[in-house]
Amino acid sequence: MFLHRIVESLVKHGVVYTLVGGYAVSLHGAVRGTVDIDFVIQLDKKSFIAAEAALCAIGLEPRLPIVAKELFEFREEYIKNRNLIAWSFQNPANLAEVVDILITEDARKLHSVTKEVYGLKVKVISINDLITMKKKSARPQDLEDVKALEKIK
Q1: pTM confidence score
Q2: Measured in whole angstroms, how far is the alpha carbon of residue 151 from the centre of its chain?
Q3: Tell me, what's the pLDDT at 32?
Q4: How far, in Å, are 45, 72, 99, 105 from residue 69 at the CA level?
Q5: Class of the CATH-defined domain 2-140
Q6: What per-residue confidence (pLDDT) applies to 138?
Q7: How far is Cα 125 from Cα 129, in angstroms, rounded to an integer?
Q8: Alpha-carbon dihedral of residues 21, 24, 28, 31, nearest 10 degrees?
């Protein structure tokens, strides 16, 4: 399972992560289809470098020609001037395998819960923090997710 490969590699490489996005919505019990798997990591250079190594180790490649060190050093500029909010990776052998690392949030500032996914323990953003993050984004799909999550709460 793709999610297992990602989480196991992140853990092996010492990356502090939290699963967010559509997968988190689903794991909290709301029906939600999504292809990409979204994570938040710690906002420090060591975590960016480790996340890049972890994802590359399972065959993923960055979609943009940006390496971890540069992305970390120029993160604010990328967010502000290039509207880059996610560092995206994809498997060139299977284009359905996509991982986005959100670079606008810090995993240390989010509350998480542990969910078991087919025998693997996965750190998932808390429902309250997920609602806050989705409201902040304000994209139509995120606002629909908020409605569904608030019904579950």
Answers
A1: 0.94
A2: 23
A3: 77
A4: 6, 5, 18, 17
A5: alpha beta
A6: 86
A7: 6
A8: 60
